């Protein structure tokens, strides 16, 4: 038996006659009758009694129709499932990020994503870069954003953003009126910086060492957002990731360009050999647009 034969049988059961079934299927009545006869021969069942050109369903035909109905219900479910997959109904995207991108930047992206894909959801976890690497390697998340000091073994990485560090300082500070500050301006200056293991911290230290200057380090911390709040509370000045300033109240603080360039480099991290996902690709595309939009407004 084949699908066309079963489809003809179902149409006759629904419509009541072969002629109406033919109209429903947009084929000829003889074709319907032939499909029914072939189905009966193949199944070795008498599905209809023929009397004066009319078809009367048999007990076997009724029992067979119940199974056909179940089968077609399954097909309808598959069609519905395919439609849901196409429109991302019930889909969940799992994203894990380092704090510099996770506290304000990615929530903006999630907002845009939610408007475009209202039937899907996003799990956003904000943790350390090493946690990002471990969870992506384990396949627990679809997309990760981490600093460039992570070990890339076991994950797929590509550059995501590399903004130049900017100098954050209190509004009344002597350097606040400068258009650009340079390493020499930091000599013996109270300085808030990142922890030693941070790759950006290593770049700052190298730049200061090459210039022969020594800022007075008064506080070290793991996260850029904490650095910003230490500056807010008058602890010292700092070189910060512009992404960490997104959504931060900068009242009473000033931003000044720092040269030479010292970059905060972040990576997009994905599970190894992950299948292509239109949902993840759409989210990443929005993240790239938001990244470029924000970059245009930095110093």
UniProtKB/TrEMBL annotation:
InterPro entries, A to Z: LysR_HTH_N, LysR_subst-bd, NocR_PBP2, WH-like_DNA-bd_sf, WH_DNA-bd_sf
Span of domain HTH lysR-type: 1-58
Keywords noted in UniProt: DNA-binding, Transcription, Transcription regulation
Transmembrane segments: none
Family: Belongs to the LysR transcriptional regulatory family.
The name this protein goes by in its record: LysR substrate-binding domain-containing protein
Annotated organism of origin: Neoaquamicrobium sediminum
């Amino acid at each position: 038996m084949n699908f066309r034969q079963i489809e003809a049988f179902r149409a006759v059961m629904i419509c009541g006659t072969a002629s109406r079934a033919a109209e429903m299927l947009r084929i000829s009545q003889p074709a319907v009758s032939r499909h029914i006869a072939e189905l009966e021969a193949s199944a070795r069942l008498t599905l209809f009694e023929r009397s004066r050109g009319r078809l009367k369903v048999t007990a076997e035909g009724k029992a067979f129709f119940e199974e056909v109905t179940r089968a077609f219900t399954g097909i309808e479910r598959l069609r519905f499932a395919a439609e849901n997959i196409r429109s991302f109904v019930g889909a969940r995207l799992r994203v894990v990020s380092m704090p510099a991108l996770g506290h304000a930047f990615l929530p903006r992206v999630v907002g845009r994503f939610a408007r475009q894909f209202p039937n899907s959801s996003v799990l956003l976890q904000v943790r350390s870069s090493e946690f990002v690497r471990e969870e992506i390697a384990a396949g627990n998340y679809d997309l990760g954003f981490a600093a460039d000091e992570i070990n890339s073994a076991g994950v797929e990485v590509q550059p995501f953003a590399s903004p130049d560090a900017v100098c954050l300082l209190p509004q009344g500070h002597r350097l606040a009126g400068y258009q650009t500050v340079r390493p020499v301006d930091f000599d013996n200056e109270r300085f808030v910086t990142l922890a030693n293991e941070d790759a950006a911290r290593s770049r700052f230290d190298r730049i200061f060492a090459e210039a022969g200057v020594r800022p007075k380090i008064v506080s070290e911390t793991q996260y850029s957002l904490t650095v910003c709040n230490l500056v807010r509370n008058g602890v010292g000045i700092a070189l910060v990731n512009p992404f960490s300033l997104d959504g931060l109240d900068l009242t009473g603080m000033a931003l000044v360009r720092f040269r030479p360039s010292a970059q905060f480099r972040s990576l997009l991290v994905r599970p190894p050999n992950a299948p292509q996902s239109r949902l993840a690709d759409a989210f990443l595309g929005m993240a790239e647009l938001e990244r470029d939009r924000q970059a245009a407004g930095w110093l």
